């Protein structure tokens, strides 16, 4: 029987297959897969946004300045800046050769156009109110004296101008190209200067960012949202996975590379897995016990102080955070640029003194209601430990467990005796105090109503001199500890789990990922 | 038949409207609102007011209600406040997960419970009957979450046969998906076996006492044939009604089981949305559940003549 020769169709088919395999190998892209717990809201920076949106968009756009690892402000698209006119005019020198994703080179004209777009009420920019009459300062003028210089004039000096420009929730006041908008002025997609371009966004499923080959990186080391942004992967996919257990399973099964914001129980579980590595970084949040200083019983500072002296903060933090966080009684976050020696002086457990104070105040075991919640296990655990420790000096705390939304409602109305609470990150020390300090009459949610502290806070927002601000924060801290409007316990930690093959990832004080400088093996 | 169907469907409209009003009112009675949850501790009053206006939450409640109903009439359930997803696709997506588990579990439970109930009734007061009744009562008394946790401990942690947490959609990987839903289905099946066995037994006992059974036996019809031809079809009708009720109830979400097994089902969507005060999703879930209840019961009623020739659809 004659042997059959392969038909031409077979030969061509095999050749095509071989070619496809070779091309496939040559074009194999490196993909990093991470998780969002909900879809992003839009791609327009700092407008229709939430934390997930900010986190993705920060890979695509950049502003004139940005936060460094320690939350101080560093230059980003600006090369440098000078402040003149009694602190009212900021003159930014722009970096040369910065390219937008469409290939155009950034000039002062683009900066002016972008800033004016943010300041247009029609844009609905989140931080517009900060630059209005009721905000930190009003922007009076934006000029471009030459193609590499932009001057912004404010109506009054403020220390918060640069931090506000850099705020991630303000979209870092991104400098974008006009092509981001259609001819009708409607938003299309960000044409930014970031190390990644926006890729496909499949609503409810994923959003991709793709390496921008024309990126002009800064030369100093990576820090916060500035410094070198050397992208080592072709694409990052942010998968929308609402369920944290499903995300954990995804990481263990290898279908995800990075998951952020783990809970303490998750951390304990993942610790023992050989395929997983963990990144634990201090965070900027603030967990503590708030007191209603208008309450008939708790208006007596001696009782509040007795509670503070009855507890051992270090022991609570150790038990609650499993060694991932350190105790801190100050309103300023540990690791921040203004956290000095003064801030390290807090409350030291002193049972005898606590008992003496209670006796003086005439406290006879009246119940003190403390609202807490189980949404944040560390808040609930803290409240249980505070209750137990206060019990040793005869303070009768009754826990009232609520769901988070109901607790927030009570918090916003100031309708509580005491509550275990957690605040989100504030990136400037003035803002850290601002979230606690204010007149209760007009802002019931504020926990510390001390007119002198409010005046010091106002000054800290105006002065740009770091030493003078430091002195104000130190003085405020002393009074904060003396007044005991709340007991700050700790700042928490950002817990991230990564597959073993992921290298170069580093968390920082702000709880958002950065996928530049990261490799996938 | 068609006339009956039309009448039944028309009758559901006032029911659903009542549900809609109730759901809307109840959801807004809970303290806290979605804007506070979204802004958290950073809820600057001006900003919160702006967001409320953006979401239409600053309107008077009756206006909000009319707005919602008007959109519902066009099939638009609105968008989730938390993640901006369309509510109806979100519900349908989550419903798939719950529906697979509930349908398989109830079918399996019925397949076991009906014969078991029949046999127990046939051998009434025997040791067999006693053990079936005892077993059913035991299963009925075990809380589902506890049973689920026990199964998880045994098959997930001790024997390591099945995954402990997570979920993979069927579309992604069929076999992997199956491993994730075996335990929830087993848990639910066991719990439902208890209810259905007792019902099947009670109904069978009644039928066994009837004259046509005695007549059939007197004619010399073999016992298995008496049970299969005469007892089972007549005893099944009441059990069928119960199956309908159970299905309607469970399809509305098996939040506890979904939580134990970390499944993204309808029940958990509802619970999570309540925590987030995501009004459109909560309202959508509850209304959807009501519709499912009505539809399942309608199907059960329409199937009735198949089992009981005395019932006709007119």
Between the first and last Cα atoms of chain A, what is the distance in angstroms?
A: 53 Å
Number of helices of chain B: 13
Q: Pairing-aware structural class of the strands and helices of chain A?
A: alpha+beta
Structural class of chain B: mainly alpha
Note the overall shape of chain A.
globular
Assembly state (oligomeric): heterodimer
Terminal CA distance of chain B reads 6 Å
Query: How much helical structure, as a percent, in the residues of chain B?
Result: over 70%
Count of DSSP helices of chain A?
14
Uncertain regions spanning at least 5 consecutive residues of chain A? none
Record field, number of beta strands of chain B: 0
- Gyration radius of chain B (Cα, Å) is 24 Å
Task: Quote the beta fraction of chain B.
Answer: under 5%
Order of helices and strands of chain B: HHHHHHHHHHHHH
* Pair of chains with the largest interface and how many residues each contributes: A-B, 34 and 32 residues
Gross morphology of chain B is: globular
Major sheet size, sense and barrel closure of chain B: none
- Main β-sheet of chain A: number of strands, strand sense, barrel status? 5 strands, mixed
How would you summarize the topology of this molecule?
The complex is a heterodimer of chains A (521) and B (314).
Chain A: H1 8-26, E1 31-36, H2 51-57, E2 65-67, E3 73-75, E4 78-84, E5 89-94, H3 108-119, E6 139-146, E7 149-154, H4 161-166, E8 196-202, E9 206-211, E10 235-240, H5 244-253, E11 258-259, H6 264-271, E12 276-282, E13 286-291, H7 301-310, H8 313-321, H9 351-361, E14 368-373, H10 377-391, E15 397-402, H11 404-413, E16 418-423, H12 429-434, H13 451-462, H14 466-483, E17 486-490, E18 493-499, E19 502-503, E20 519-520
Helix pairs in contact in A: 7-9, 8-10, 13-14
Chain B: H1 2-29, H2 34-39, H3 45-55, H4 61-73, H5 87-122, H6 127-141, H7 144-158, H8 174-208, H9 211-218, H10 223-251, H11 255-260, H12 266-276, H13 279-307
